Amino acid sequence: MSTEIANQKPPTVVNGMVRFTALVDGRVNQEFEVSSDVLVEHFGATGRSDDELVEAFRKGKAEIMAVAARSVSTPVNGMIALGTGDFSELTPGKPGSSS
């Protein structure tokens, strides 16, 4: 299953969460949001400004897309929220991390 950011709608910050639309298998658009907690704790955002959150999203895009692909079969009406429980406990680049 391929999952990528939909070209027509870049990631944006809404209420402290990065929202994006993923194109799944080249045909299905699904909306997701990633919490600021994930972006700070897991992807190293240095703050919670829009620019800092989007930059952390871009740095973690591969892992975020992988988590989105696993979550796309979640039965929802609308947006799928990705929170800290959806990502590994280890923070990339920190001691003890495998990445």
TrEMBL record:
Could you name the domain of life of the organism this protein comes from?
Bacteria
Q: Name one Pfam family in it.
A: DUF1488
Q: What is this protein called?
A: DUF1488 family protein
